[in-house]
């Protein structure tokens, strides 16, 4: 692996083993802006045109197809190791079924990082929190029965009823943590964030997809940091009308005075095709004309 450090202004608060710190550099989070919510990061790969997925190509919509990078895969595990939970939208599960149609479990593959998470950081199994308003999920997917992770579902009260009914029919009652917030068809993301922090002790949360969910978190000013892999290619427009290749922010839209800005925290690169940015949310800024 050829991960190179170009710039790093991170806090140095995590007790990284020497061999990992030599590879990445210092790593840490500041105090959260809102002590009642988790510190929320997002991690995405995108091409030079900002697009994050070959969405319309069945079986090839996942980030790995865009990335094609062993360094990106290691960094994904690195970030997962430092977060209490991972947040994933239901559409991401549906769009990334994998070769056996059972999807991924979103667990850490790197053995050294698994050991570091457990023995040095004292963190238990990764909490994979799937977000769905309707509760329309295939609970036979790998993420819901993998021994490597702890599955959670965050939904609406109606979605919770649907899911509990499905699990009862399958004889799997009590195997998945289900919590709800909001009303009607939509999960209240701000309420969900507060509940995860105050009731369930989730201090750090990593959003891994999809773009619509990431855009909603940004729009509600819930994002604290973003990790971006830039894959030096152009994805272009979709090959199928009606199915867009999304950017990493879904459908958000801003005027110049309200656009959110981010401060650069670190840059890594892997020659010759990848750059890795860590960015911290600052919000709208004023500039002199």
Task: Give the topology.
Layout: E1 4-8, H1 18-24, E2 39-46, H2 63-67, H3 70-81, E3 85-89, H4 90-95, H5 111-120, E4 126-131, E5 149-155, H6 157-169, E6 177-180, E7 182-183, E8 186-187, H7 189-198, E9 204-207, H8 211-219, E10 225-231, E11 261-270, E12 274-283
Parallel strand pairs: 2-9, 2-10, 3-4, 3-9, 4-5, 5-6
Antiparallel strand pairs: 1-11, 7-8, 10-12, 11-12
Describe this structure in words.
By secondary structure, the chain is α/β, with parallel strands linked by helices. The chain has a domain at 32-220: Dihydrofolate Reductase, subunit A (3-Layer(aba) Sandwich). 25% of the residues lie in helices and 24% in strands. It has 8 helices and 12 strands. The protein has a 10-stranded mixed β-sheet with strand order 1-11-12-10-2-9-3-4-5-6. The termini are far apart. The relative contact order is 0.21.
Number of strands: 12
Distance between the termini: 45 Å
- Following the backbone from N to C, one meets helices and strands in this order, namely EHEHHEHHEEHEEEHEHEEE
Q: What is the percent of helical residues?
A: 10-25%
In brief:
With 289 residues, the chain is α/β, with parallel strands linked by helices.
